[in-house]
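Summary of Year 1 activities. Much of the first year was spent building the evaluation harness for sequence design. The harness presents a backbone, in tokenized form, and records the residue chosen at every position. We chose the following record to illustrate the format because it has been used consistently in internal testing since the harness was completed.
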């Protein structure tokens, strides 16, 4: 198979995602069901899940004309005369406007004290801020029956316009409006909106099950003390963490040696999943047996190498399953940084799409490069780096000894993206980073 550029490989994954979504939609409509499957979860546990059913407004938002400031509800034209206006009412958040006379309506030539979030009384068309007000107090009557009164005016030369400091009823949403569409990953903002609309539970998409298979004669379980020529299986737990963080449900299979029979058996075991990730055994060595094992299982390959560093040998395809949709897979390089980089670039978007996410793309940002980079052109590079996400994000390469350097990876929080044509990037240049 020809070596693809990063852009070509990413486009191939996106075409697969679009075809998957379209095919799933057609089949689900024909069967009258949601192929993803959905479940109702408590609002408090919904963060990180993907909406399967949209959030709708149960009433106008806001449900009344709402003050955005502590101040005085008024008629703008009267306030702009800068004359003292009698203070005849008060309304707090959570109260129904009543006023002194109990009418709930602001009479001509009067003002009411109002608090942030409170409903604006009928008759008022503006609110001027408390810090812009001047007060006057008077005492009326005899000493035995004294009564105090207060008047307020807008301090000159300030003016207020109709609608100022008021959010009109229904200006954010009308009852029944769709506020968040299915396919959105739920975060704090969606949780707040759902709570405002009365959702104690949300319908969320099922988490895709991802089979994770690490390969290699050298691997031993984490709890085993490795021999002189062995290493612990770090890719299995790492990929499980990445899968869970991306909204999937990790199904970690026991690591298998570089032998045909165990590989074949493990691939068959993985056919119950929604996505298969194989780590290791995909390069050109004598004992890199994964490609042949996938071929024996009937794999259709979409690509078998990408001009990137690290992760060049990554492969993408699908496996047949009788009576079911084909199982997509990624064969990831065995070195941990290569495996993580190719997961973020290719597997994570597909996993997101399988889980109903409507924005299944890697996340990139811009930052200033601290120090320079030099190298040979020809490969798009995704190099472990650490970014300080302050007011002016700055990224610095992590010193590393190659894609097996897990310690360097652990010190990183992103990948510096180096374009394929680059030979040098000067310090201070604005560069792209892929968020990890």
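For this record, the design step produced the sequence shown next.
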């Amino acid at each position: 198979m020809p070596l693809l550029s990063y852009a070509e490989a990413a486009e191939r994954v996106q075409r697969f995602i679009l075809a998957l979504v379209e095919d799933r939609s057609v089949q689900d409509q024909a069967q009258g069901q949601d192929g993803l499957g959905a479940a109702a979860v408590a609002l408090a546990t919904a963060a990180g899940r993907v909406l399967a059913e949209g959030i709708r407004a149960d009433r106008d938002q806001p449900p009344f004309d709402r003050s955005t400031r502590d101040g005085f509800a008024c008629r703008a034209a009267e306030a702009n005369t800068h004359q003292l206006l009698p203070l005849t009412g008060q309304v707090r958040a959570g109260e129904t406007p009543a006023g002194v006379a109990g009418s709930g309506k602001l009479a001509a030539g009067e003002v009411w004290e109002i608090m942030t979030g409170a409903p604006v009384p009928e008759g008022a068309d503006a609110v001027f801020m408390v810090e812009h007000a001047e007060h006057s107090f008077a005492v009326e009557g005899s000493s035995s029956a004294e009564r105090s009164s207060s008047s307020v005016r807008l301090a000159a030369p300030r003016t207020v316009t109709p609608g100022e400091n008021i959010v009109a009823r229904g200006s954010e949403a009308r009852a029944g409006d769709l506020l968040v569409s299915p396919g959105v990953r739920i975060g704090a903002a969606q949780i707040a909106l759902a709570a405002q609309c009365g959702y104690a539970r949300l319908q969320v998409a099922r988490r895709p099950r991802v089979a994770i298979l690490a390969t290699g004669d050298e691997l031993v379980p984490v709890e085993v003390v490795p021999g002189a020529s062995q290493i612990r299986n770090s890719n299995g737990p790492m990929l499980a963490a990445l899968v869970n963080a991306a909204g999937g449900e990790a199904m970690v299979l026991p690591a298998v040696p570089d032998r045909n029979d165990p590989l074949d058996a493990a691939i068959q075991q993985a056919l119950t999943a929604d996505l298969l990730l194989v780590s290791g055994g995909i390069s050109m060595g004598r004992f890199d047996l994964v490609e042949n094992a996938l071929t024996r299982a009937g794999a259709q390959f979409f690509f078998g190498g990408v001009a990137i560093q690290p992760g060049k040998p990554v492969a993408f395809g699908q496996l047949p399953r009788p009576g079911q949709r084909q199982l997509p897979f990624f064969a990831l390089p065995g070195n941990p940084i290569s495996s993580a980089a190719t997961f973020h670039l290719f597997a994570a978007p597909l996993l997101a799409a399988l889980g109903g996410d409507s924005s299944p793309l890697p996340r990139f940002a811009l930052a200033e490069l601290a120090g320079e980079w030099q190298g040979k052109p020809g490969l798009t590079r995704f190099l472990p780096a650490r970014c300080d996400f302050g007011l002016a994000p700055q990224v610095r390469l992590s010193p590393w000894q190659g894609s097996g350097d897990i310690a360097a990876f652990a010190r990183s929080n992103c990948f510096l993206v180096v374009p394929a044509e680059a030979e040098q990037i000067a310090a201070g240049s604005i560069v792209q980073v892929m968020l990890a």
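The chain has eight helices and 28 strands. Quantitative recovery figures across the full test set are reported in Table 2.
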